[in-house]
């Protein structure tokens, strides 16, 4: 790699698409952001546009010394940031929030080029991501402790909620903005400083957030972004005594590695991991409406969503009509560059993701599954790109990888079921427990699902379930802890119990 390549902002050839797409080209940063400075490593790595395989820029690879320096700077910044009044921290965060909203068109354009999602999805993510900053800025003012009725004579008992310290945040590529803000806003609002490691496929969306944090005047060292080798960075986070909280969003296998590495320093770990969401259609549901909702829950972000409806369950007697409606919806999907207004399914993140999708499909077909429909239209404006068609599979069995694994691609699996007990059991038959959907009217059946499903989030008659006020998180191997809502503070704070006794007075009272 060309070690002299430092500011791709000057390299109009490599970044022509970005430079022409952005109104504010200074949002495109490629160096790491540490202690309020833009820092270069010795090596650089390319980032590709998944819609055409072209290099859109190079981001810097830091050494472990530089990452340690980022942690030390964050520790230094923590000592003053935590002392600010909640109102003062809130003002900084609200300024950051406003800068992000003002730049949302550019941030979305950058995300489309870097991540591949459609413009509508990207804009939605920027607003969703920003909403956490506003929420936690406001919530910081209400991070109350409590008073406890005393069991000790002449003592007053209470708790304080204190910021835990430096938080190391590791995030994925499928939501390159919101997975950062959902963690960072909670941590920073309560008084922590953060060091963020974004995914290597999508560093530029993260670095644009740092540029805006700088413009918002967030003090140096409070919000840092480090880029480079995942193992090197995560190992520094896990082994550092200064990093008091590790918050990870990504796959379950990597989450397990991090938990094991972090055990040595016994730090607070929160894990937002993979999902394998069931979508249960109840017998009294309008089948066309159910098909529309299921397609929506399956194909967002090209199926690369931890909340994607991975397994769609339909009562046996409604199976054929459901397939009829769902087939039409699959065929109507338009696969293409996220920049094109007609596109509904952007590219997968890279060629490996396409190969994985193809393997899942081959495995299912060999074992007897049938392709009932695929999307007809592909908008191929250029050659290349990691596209995969929306695909509907039937005759799927529970042994197939496409059913058992988080398939993370636009392959939809629809299965018949005979009764509610059976479908709840099938839904729970997975190591994952992130989200589940239920569509129908019968309140008794809905209640049975709400009680019986082993998932951290169950959404009835609504595809949209996430947002700043709700506790987002999973059960079982989908994770530990919750993000968003008032519970989001728990991952970045400690409860300190204070027992305030009274010394006896001279009179002995
Ligand atoms: P991933 O491969 O686990 O990567 C996530 C992050 O971990 C990236 O920053 C990655 O860095 C880093 N990483 C990868 N291997 C590592 C290792 N051996 N040691 C330390 N760090 C490592 O996941 P992904 O493919 O980016 O994201 C998809 C997964 O995230 C899916 O399973 C999805 O369900 C999950 N997800 C969960 C939620 C939720 O809220 N529960 C939300 C979104 C996504 P590099 O990019 O540099 O390799």
TrEMBL record:
Protein name: NAD-dependent succinate-semialdehyde dehydrogenase
Keyword Plastid recorded: no
Domain of life: Bacteria
Residue span, Aldehyde dehydrogenase domain: 38-497
InterPro entries for this protein: Ald_DH/histidinol_DH, Ald_DH_C, Ald_DH_CS_CYS, Ald_DH_CS_GLU, Ald_DH_N, Aldehyde_DH_dom, Aldehyde_DH_Superfamily
Pfam families according to UniProt: Aldedh
One GO-annotated biological process of the protein: gamma-aminobutyric acid catabolic process
GO molecular function terms listed in the Swiss-Prot or TrEMBL record: succinate-semialdehyde dehydrogenase (NAD+) activity
Gene3D superfamilies: Aldehyde Dehydrogenase, Chain A, domain 1, Aldehyde Dehydrogenase, Chain A, domain 2
Family indicated by similarity: Belongs to the aldehyde dehydrogenase family.
Active-site residues (renumbered): 272
Key words, A-Z: Oxidoreductase
């Amino acid at each position: 790699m060309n070690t002299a390549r430092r500011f791709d902002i000057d390299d109009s050839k490599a970044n022509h698409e970005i430079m022409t797409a952005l109104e504010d080209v200074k949002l495109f940063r490629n160096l790491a952001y540490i202690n309020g400075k833009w820092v270069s490593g010795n090596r650089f790595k390319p980032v590709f546009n998944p819609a055409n395989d072209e290099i859109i820029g190079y981001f810097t690879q830091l050494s472990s010394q530089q990452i340690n320096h980022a942690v030390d700077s964050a520790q230094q910044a923590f000592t003053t940031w935590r002392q600010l009044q909640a109102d003062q921290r809130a003002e900084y965060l609200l300024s950051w929030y406003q800068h992000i909203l003002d730049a949302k068109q550019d941030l979305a354009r950058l995300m489309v080029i870097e991540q591949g999602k459609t413009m509508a999805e990207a804009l939605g993510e920027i607003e969703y991501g920003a909403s956490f900053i506003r929420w936690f800025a406001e919530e910081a003012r209400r991070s109350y402790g409590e008073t406890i009725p005393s069991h000790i004579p002449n003592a007053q008992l209470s708790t304080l909620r204190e910021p835990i310290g430096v938080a190391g945040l590791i995030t994925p590529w499928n939501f390159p903005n919101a997975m950062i803000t959902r963690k960072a806003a909670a941590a920073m609002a309560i008084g922590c400083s953060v060091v963020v490691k974004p995914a290597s496929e999508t560093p530029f969306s993260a670095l644009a957030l740092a540029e805006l944090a700088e413009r918002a005047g967030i003090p140096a060292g409070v919000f840092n972004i480090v880029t480079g080798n995942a193992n090197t960075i995560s190992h520094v986070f896990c082994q550092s005594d200064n990093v008091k909280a590790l918050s990870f969003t990504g796959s379950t296998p990597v989450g397990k590695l991090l938990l094991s590495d972090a055990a040595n320093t016994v730090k607070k770990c929160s894990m937002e991991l993979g999902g394998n969401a069931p979508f249960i259609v109840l017998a009294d549901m309008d089948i066309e409406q159910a098909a529309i909702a299921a397609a929506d829950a399956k194909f967002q972000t090209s199926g690369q969503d931890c909340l994607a409806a991975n397994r769609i369950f339909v009562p046996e007697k409604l199976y054929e009509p459901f397939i009829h409606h769902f087939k039409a919806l699959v065929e109507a999907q338009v696969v293409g560059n996220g920049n094109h207004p007609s596109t509904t399914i952007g590219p997968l993140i890279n060629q490996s993701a396409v190969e994985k999708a193809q393997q899942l499909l081959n495995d299912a077909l060999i074992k007897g599954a049938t392709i009932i429909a695929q999307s007809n239209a592909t908008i191929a404006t250029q050659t290349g790109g990691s596209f995969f068609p929306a695909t509907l599979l039937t005759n799927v069995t529970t042994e197939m990888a496409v059913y058992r694994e988080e398939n993370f691609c636009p392959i939809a699996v629809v299965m018949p079921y005979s009764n509610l007990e059976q479908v709840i059991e099938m839904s729970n038959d997975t190591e994952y427990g992130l989200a589940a959907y239920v569509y129908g009217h019968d309140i008794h059946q809905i209640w049975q699902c709400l009680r019986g499903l082993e998932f951290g989030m169950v959404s009835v008659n609504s595809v949209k379930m996430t947002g700043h006020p709700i506790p987002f998180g999973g059960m079982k191997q989908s994770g530990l802890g919750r993000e968003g809502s008032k519970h989001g503070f728990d991952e970045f704070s400690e409860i300190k119990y204070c027992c305030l006794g009274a010394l006896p007075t001279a009179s002995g009272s």
